[in-house]
Amino acid sequence: MEAEKNRNEETQAMERVVTAILRVQTAFTALQAQFPPNGEGRPSKFALQTFDAALQELEDAQAGFDNLLGDLLDGER
Fold first, then answer.
1. Lower CB count within 10 Å: N or C terminus of the chain?
2. SS3 for 75?
């Protein structure tokens, strides 16, 4: 049962990273659209904040996954 719990935690951690990457990609695309040739080169505060939040979530997700991976490599999982 413990092994199954560990695999579920590891799967959730990887899914969080993937979701965060997709959010960064989406936020970047929205931000990029505000620059020439489509935009005026003045990104909105909302677009910048959304991109920043997406990057922060990616960083947090990667840290969580790194912790699990470290435990796995140390034989603690």
1. N
2. coil
